[in-house]
Every structure is written in C-alpha cells, then in structure tokens.
C-alpha cells in the first residue's frame, strides 16, 4: 500500500497562512493535492496539519485529514521527517501498514502527476530507499563567492579560480516538491541526501522554492508563463 502525506502546519511566519494562501486562483496546497490524486499512485492522500482551517480546505479539495497533528510536531523546529514518521506510526497504531510513502510539500505548485509517477518507477527500479526531485544550479557552485568580515569578496573554492566553467562538475539541489521513500527508511531516519537516494531531475523553469513574499511573486510570474 502507498500513502501520500502533505505536511501543512498553520504557523508559517514569513508568509502568514502560507499553505492556504491563494496562488493563481486557488489555495496553494490544492496544486499538491490535485497532483497526488491525478497520479493515481496512492491508496490515500492525507494532509498532516495542526490547523482546522487548513484541514477544511484540504478536505474540500479531496484530501483526507484523519487526525490533527500534535502541537509538539507543529513548531518552528520540527523537521519534515518527524512529521512523516508520526503519520506512518499513527496509521500503524490503527492497524494500517504502508510500504511506500511519498511526502509532498504543500507549497509546490509546479508539481506534476507524471513526475510523481516517475519517482515511484525510479524507487522500484533501483535499490534506493528514496527518490526525490532535484534540479541543477544555474551557475557552477565551485565559482561561488562570499562577503567576508571585512566586506570584501572571497571565493569558497579558490582552487577553481582559473578553471573554465564548462570543465566544472555540474551540481544539483533539492527541488522541494516531493520525496518518495520506503516506509521503513522514513521510520529508521535514513538520511535523504546520501547514496541511498536516486534523483528525479526537473528543469529549472519548473522549480521555485517559496519561503518569502518575493519568492511567491516570482513563482506566480513563472507559473503564468507556463
């Protein structure tokens, strides 16, 4: 059996009510719920939240909210893995066992059902514990600079100063959309960013992290161009 978990706490600080704020015509969490349902990969699609309003919105758009998340798992410090583990164990306590679990972020409007399907296929065709979305950095990370304590610039990797950009290894980062994983891996706390994961590579134009209002505006502009 397979389960989709969409974590969506109510206490977002930088963008108040972020998980149900309108994004291009409907609450942003809706895009994640709809993609999960359209993928037809799951026996159940549930939202883990501590907030009644979020729960109502989630149910209205087709997700289940079988419980309200405990306050201790809805603070500013609790990570996604703990929320996923809690949900798996809640179902086990009610006699329902899942073999594969996909954590889908609530603020991922660029998510597509076919990518979720591809992730499941990759999980099955590999010996990995996880499969999740990544995208490439738009500039070689080896040429990155920082502003040091004197206010001047300094390279993170000065040894690459004279290396041509086309000769540098391409780097990727988490695309922040979804994470397929074996239920056992989630429960055991297996690290995502390791050799036990395989990538689903997305083009950069379909990836935008949304943490600030500036991110939100940029994401809506990108979305309307697609």
From TrEMBL:
<protein>
    <submittedName>
        <fullName>Acylneuraminate cytidylyltransferase</fullName>
    </submittedName>
</protein>
<dbReference type="InterPro" id="IPR003329">
    <property type="entry name" value="Cytidylyl_trans"/>
</dbReference>
<dbReference type="InterPro" id="IPR050793">
    <property type="entry name" value="CMP-NeuNAc_synthase"/>
</dbReference>
<dbReference type="GO" id="GO:0008781">
    <property type="term" value="F:N-acylneuraminate cytidylyltransferase activity"/>
</dbReference>
<keyword id="KW-0808">Transferase</keyword>
<dbReference type="Pfam" id="PF02348">
    <property type="entry name" value="CTP_transf_3"/>
</dbReference>
<dbReference type="InterPro" id="IPR020039">
    <property type="entry name" value="PseF"/>
</dbReference>
<dbReference type="InterPro" id="IPR029044">
    <property type="entry name" value="Nucleotide-diphossugar_trans"/>
</dbReference>
<keyword id="KW-0548">Nucleotidyltransferase</keyword>
